Structure formats: C-alpha cells, structure tokens
Protein arginine N-methyltransferase
Amino acid sequence: MTPTIKTVRCALSVPTVVDISDAINNTIDNKFTYLICPLFHPRFKREHIAGGLKHQELPMSRSDLDLNAECWQNYVVGHLSKFYNCDSEDEMTRKNAIIGLSEELRFVAHLNLTNFVIPIRNGNIENLARTLNNNLMNKLALYNILIRVPMHMDRLNIEIENFPARPKCDTPWNWWQKMRTLCEESTRLGLALELTNDLPEDEEEIHRWFAEPVRMVIIPTSLFLTNKSGFPVLSKAHQKFINKFLSLDIDFVIEGANRHSEKGMSKYFEYLNFLYKNYQLSNNTTNTYKFTKGYEDCLQNPLQPLMDNLESQVYEVFEKDPIKYAQYKKAVAEALCDRVSDEEKTSKETVIMVVGAGRGPLVKAAMQAAADTERKVKLFAIEKNPNAINTLLNLKHSLWGDKVTIIAKDMRDWYPTEKADILVSELLGSIGDNELSPECLDGAQRLLKDDGISIPYRYRSFIAPVQSYKIYSEVKRCKDYEHPHEAPYVVLLNNHCRIDDEKFLFEFTHPNRAEKIDNNRYGKLDFQAKFDATLHGFGGYFDSHLYKDVDISITPSTHSPDMISWFPMFFPLKNPINIKKNDTITVHFWRCVSSKQVWYEWCVTSPSNSVIHNPNGRTYWIGLH
Ligand SMILES: C[S@@+](CC[C@H](N)C(=O)[O-])C[C@H]1O[C@@H](n2cnc3c(N)ncnc32)[C@H](O)[C@@H]1O
C-alpha cells in the first residue's frame, strides 16, 4: 500500500492586518494553513496607567464580528503586540505592559483562539512569567501560549521596542528554560522557535531543541536563497535542521516581506511542502515507520506477562518483528552446531525447551534452525497462558505433530523426566529484567542439563539522563496512579534528548549457578551533562546476548536496526532538575525483590537531591505470581 502523503502545515505571519477577512483570504489563496498576526493595532496602543484616558473611548481592537467563531479558531493565531515589555526597568512601562498583556490574553480567550505567540528577547522575564502563570492557572481559558525565541543569538540584533540589552551569559534556550520553570512546566506552554541565520555550532545544542515542546518553527523570508530558476530555497544547513523537525509534526511559519515577488508568497509554502513530501517518501516506507508511527511519546504501562495473560493482539505485534526471530534462529543454529558435530548429526538428538512460548514463533525459529543445520531435535513448548496454549495446540494438530510437546504450566512448576540441552526464552522487557526473566529463568534452570545452553545467556540494562518536556507533561497528565511520576512507562522516545550517553546499570546471566541467588540490585551512576539542560527523568534500555556474539539491543548506541518489539522505558522525576553543562548527575537505582513482587526505586543526589521515587513499590511493582 502506498503511504498517504500529507501536506505540510505552514502559516503566514504578518506584522499588521488592515482587513482580517481579506488577510485570511490572501493566506488561504497562497496555500498557507492559517494566519499569525497581532490582535491589537499599534494605533490603539492604550495607556492604562499614565494619561489613563488615551484611546480609552476607542475599541481596543477590531470587532470579533469580523470573523465567525470557527474562522477565528481555525485560521488565526494571535501575536502579542510588540510594544509591551512587562519587565521594563521603567515602572510605568512595566505596569502598563502587564495590564496590556492581560487585556490581550482575555481577548484571546474571548475569541477562543488555540494559540497565542509571545516573544521574549532576553532572560528578564519574571514579571512576564508571573502574569502568564496567573493566566495559565485559569482553567476556563483553553489557549496555549507559545513563547517565541530565536534559536540562536544572532537574531538579537532585531530591535524590539523597550527591550533592554541582553545579558551576555544567557542563551535563548536558558530564557525559555527559566520561563517554563517559573510557570511550573505548564502543559499549556509551548515554543515558537525562530530559525536564525546562524545555527548553533554545537550539534548537541541544536538537538536540545528537539526535547522541547516546539509547536512551530518561524522561518524569516530573509533566510531564503534563490535557486537557478528564481525560486526560494533554504541553505543545506537550514534544510537539515528543518528535516529534523519534520519528524515532530510541527507547524512552520513564513514571516517577512516577499523576496521573490515575481513568484508569489505561495512559493515559500510550496518549498516547505516539497521538503515535507521528500521527508515522507524517504521515511514513511521503512519497516520501522510502518510499525511505530503514531506511538511517538505515548506512555504505555509496561506489560506484566507473568502476572497477566497477554492478549492475541499483543502477540501479533511481537510476531511482526523482522529481526528478533531471525536472531534467535541464528543463535539456536549456532548452539546446535556447537552441541552436535557434523558426524553426529544423524544420530544425536538435541532437546530444546522453549519456555514462555507464547503463540509459537520461537518454536518455529528453533525448528527452522534445526532444518537449516540438519540437526535432529526434540522440542518442548512451555507456556502458562491458557489462551496461548490453545494456539500452540492448534499448531501442533495442524502442523507440528509429534515434533513438539506442549506443556501448559508455569515454567517454575514443571518437573520433567528429561532435561534440556538448550533452553530458549524471550521474557525480556524494555530494560531487560523488568518482565521478571531473572526470576522465571532461575526457577526453570533445573530443566537444563549441567552443560546446557541458555539462550539468552545474559542481558543488561542501561540508563541515560533524559530531557523531555513533552513526556514529563504526559506523565503529569496521567491519571492511572496517585503518584504518576513514580511509575516507569514504556514510550517510544521522540521529542527528547539525552543529556549524556547511556551507561550500564544491571546485569543478569543464565544459568545462574550461585549457591544463593539474589536478584536484588543496586547501582549508582555518574553522568556528565553535555550541555545546560533540564533533567526530566531517565531513559531505560537493554541488550541481550543470545548465544556467543549473536545479540539483540535497544540501547541507543547499539540498537539492532529495524527491531521494533521494544520501546525504551522512561523513569520520570517528580520535579525536573535544572542542570548546567559539565554538572555531574548522580543517580541511584534499586531493583527490589520480595516474595510477591519486584519493583524499582530511584533518586538523584547530584547536582541536587530528588526524593526517592516509588518507595516500597507503592506505585509500581511487578507481580511474581
Ligand atoms: C514476551 S512473551 C514472548 C512470547 C513468544 N516467545 C514470542 O517471542 O513471541 C513471554 C511469554 O512468556 C509467558 N510466560 C511468562 N512467564 C512464564 C512462566 N513463568 N511460565 C510459563 N510461561 C511464562 C507469557 O505468558 C508470554 O506468553
């Protein structure tokens, strides 16, 4: 099936509007999705404090009757008038601006607009933040506030009335970080990021913007070059940047005078649409895209395949993975060849037990490995989910016959007369051990001969400090738990960045011949921040070594290409922690085991202390029975 190609959402931003109806018609005629404009005209600039009566007898803005409600909502995004500076040194200017801003915000709510853009040009934003925060607390107003910042310093030479010179040590990202911290990381705050002529030299600084709730990227027409045919195009560096943002499904905004007047404004839209189309053609056809599109940044509660019975649909998703079963087949084939030489292959039989067989894909992989290597095998499929047993029995009767014996039992409770040469399992969660593979396999290892092989023989968890305002907001909104920030979530991390590379946390090996097996773990890790950031939580990943060097991984630096069975895990923090470049981030993780359940606890102790999350597994735990 050919993928649907979507049209880019691209708005037109104008400094003033004479007739709003005409302006919208012009916007649509030029193919733009909506119009961004100031709601108040500079001519109606009102003095609320000094000279109180100036303009007071005039309407504060155009009439809401100029458009119908649907049109206001769908085709207009408001932009704060340029003349307000809520943090001016001058008291009158400041007071006047605060009243003016509140007036504009009330009008935005009256018009029921979805978004309102407010520019900031330096880090002096305390009064602005307070005014916005008070308005954001109003649960009746639904609009989002988009804080407009240049993505890099070079735009700061643009003069905005009444704004004082910027402090040198600040960057636009720091101003934005300050704003969202002061506004308690409100989920109604977003970013309107202004593309600048110069891009940050540091790739990681660019990357940090991808961890922010960027709703629109504003592209000044002055950034466009002219190609041989006279059409507007962006430089390679800008194109690369735009391409990265295309995966976030955001809006683009064209702003400024038409510098290609003979071609018309619509050419700017067409150029961006061309980039979007190419992006979709090169990405939307990949296997990974097919299976993962729509899951980006959506929180899912981790599965509990031991305590719960998985549903058919869940098995179906696993079974679509093109990589996992191929790797298992390879691992079993290599193990078979190591166990049975070519000379013995017609005489010697290998016993393979697939524990946690689900609907049978690993049984099939093992059979295929036996066929490929021409080894004789005797197969057992052990599964505790009665519905999956039904599938396995159907397969036995229709396909496998005597080649496979089906055992409807918990692997920890089955006592067969013969033992396995190879024990195959896939009981792994997003950080490896979180679906209780260690406890299940420890309980089942007596099924394995003393010299038997466990596939996998090892799995390891990794974590990385993560900034993601989006995921943090989703956690905040989550109603599943009393303390939603104390539960880990399975999530395809998209709108995020890693503040440092991932590091190894816990390891489990099988068979575990220790005299007394202890699956409790404690790990303390030090990360070093690569840039100023906000720590919202930790990404969790795993790798699993199946046999010798055959492995699978969802760890960022070694991810098995195209493997889609697992998304990472996200361990949130109750309160985000602001981090400076080169700060040491110290995190402590515990894996705790009781007779009934397993859970994780975690906390940060540097650069500042967090609470210990999930004490005694009060919010999240994994049942052992
Ligand atoms: C992650 S699924 C994998 C299923 C299948 N092997 C696959 O790759 O598609 C894990 C399976 O192990 C089963 N399982 C988990 N713990 C088990 C236990 N203690 N004994 C038997 N089966 C178990 C679950 O019911 C589930 O079917």
User: Anything to note?
Assistant: The CA atoms of residues 98 and 296 lie 38 Å apart.
